[in-house]
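Exercise 7. Predict the structure of Transmembrane protein from Antrodiella citrinella.
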Amino acid sequence: MSFAFYGFYEDEAPFVLSTLTLVHLLSFISFAIWAWGAAPTFTCANIVHLMVFGHRVRVTGWIRYIVLAILGFWSTGISLILISGAVSWLYAFWTHKEEHLFTERKRLQDLEASSTSPQTEARRNSGSMKGRPDLVLGGSAFALGFLIFGIVMAELMIATHDIVPQGSEWSFGQIAAFILLITPVFTLARVIRDDYIRKSPKPIERRPPAVLWKVIQDWMADKGITSASVADKHTDAPDELSEGPMIVLDVLDKDAVGVASSNTLDVQRPLVGTSNPDIDGIGIRVSLYAQGAITLLIYAISPDDTIFDSWWSTLVTALSLQLAALVSWSSISLYHAVLVTWLSFPALIMSFAFFGMFYVEDNAPPILLVLTYVHGATFIGFTLWVWATAPMFTCPDVVHLVIVGQHVRVTGWIRYIVLCLMSIWALGGVVASVIGVLFFLARQPAINRLSARVRNFEAVYIIPRKPPETRVSRNERVLGGAFASFAFLVFALIMAELMIASHNVVSSDNGWGFGQIVAFVLLLMPVSTAVRVIYADYTRKSTKSLDERPLASLWRQIRYRKWKTKADPERIERANADKRSSESALGSYELVSGVDGEPRTSPRASNEGHDITVMQYERADYGVGTEEHLHWVIDRHYQDERGIQWSLYDLKEDLRRNKRCFGGVRIGNFKKEDFDELCKVCVHAHAGGGKFVLQVIAAHLPIIKFEGWNFRDWVMEVIGIVIERAWVQQAKRLTGRARCTSLNC
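Solution. The predicted structure, encoded as tokens:
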């Protein structure tokens, strides 16, 4: 698959992906040459075989020379490519001609674009390398064929050998591999949903399976074949399937050393005090510590989409460690169980910092939020189980913690403190989960549209945030979360290492296994992201403002305070630029602003004959100057028994994407206090500075009268609608009466 993907990317492959692909290719060829070249020197080499066309072929026989010849050709070709590439790069670097090479490449591309030769026109009409469906489909079919071949050969080899099982069947490495499978599964579901279920904006040339399906449909149409005729043919065809003979493959020699029947062995449980490399191995520990520190560094430097990859690796490692301990619950020792809680504790603390920021900004991938929630629930459940059943483990009295230089047994007074804290944490998590689910359900269009109580909560009963002058800024929130998480990371590191140093455990024979190697490979992702972020943000090549770079903002504040500078010149220039461009931010929309303290209405403002009034104002002005417009809409349509529906848009992104980011409905006439609450909600709907749009729509909505409001009624309203599915019938009745606008339906 590496050849197919690398050929597809051509010159557009990410540096990290290209490097990892090259490392994997070199390691595979080197390992394969070593394994097949030294095959006769292994123990019991004569009984290891492959299945080729139903025959057992020993790996030390003739097939060994064929494999070595193929690997030799591959290694020679790759060596020549690497040598030529290295020589070209060194020549360009030492002669300072790298910029000239890029200029020459750009000149050749421009020359090809302006060329009118038949060959160039044919190549240009065929599309770019990345847009050719034939290349993608060919590479996919080629890779799929070799994937099936590799699976068949591996499973046949496993099925024809009896191996003695060692330890637990599910270790850290296997669980980490399964968790990593979540990423391609979610990506596949998202791609299928976006490109093949919904109306995809991509052209058909960018969707290779759609191209293939269109070719098949055209071929079937030319041949006069329809789906109905194919179904009739399959219906009339007789069932020719029958059970064939079963081939039983025996093992060559079950009495050989290292190969025996698993039914004749009784694998004993590991002794208490024996080292488990998948838990207390140096690779697991170093990977967790380094991933946490590097992820927090990236979070402090650039808390945007770059944090997702690093946080994903940290979650996979910590969650795999806990699941591996849970799977081996019948054989794990109390020492290793408590150590798992210390190693996974920093990831839990970091979850609060990341989840809080991503929840406010609403830009986290759903898969990352789900995995964060699963990790938190797993940690709390596992910790409660370990500390609650601590006296039931083998030798619980010898396991202890080191607190202020003193050895404290885990079955002593510290156990009750931990159980109390974990119980409070679990209760808070359950309450937050229930409220989160209810809020998610309440925001669904079917429920929000049909329940006045739910809409009323959305519009008025949101607790307003602090005023902008006393509100915690984004950079302060990010840096505070990063420093607090780093402090807990150092605390957990010290406690875990002191616990390991104060216990005498028997070292394992195989210190570096698959699990520790996987943990170190997962460390490559945050390391590469950190290098890229540091290079981009601190070599003066970053286009981000200081509001998006917390660590740089902190350093600038320290620097200018040190030199007693009154203000930051970059911030002054950016504020002046924003002020100059504020008048043209909305184009033809009506402007209402209160920058100078007094409301100013645009000359284009006119309320007569309009059902939609759009207003803009500073978030710090609490909607000053908009009351007359809002009350005009209410007074105009109150006699028609219409509700007032409003939506909030962010000028930079949401209005352009036609996406409502916050909204609600108030029924009937507004009072002065209701309007004040609504303005506060609008002002504090999103953190940070900037301008936004308040759209008030006089829509044909039925008036639903109710007396009072409280949280219990709101919860019962949401649950009742979900259980009874009342919105299905109500939506059908409202279809003919509700008026849809271009912005909100």
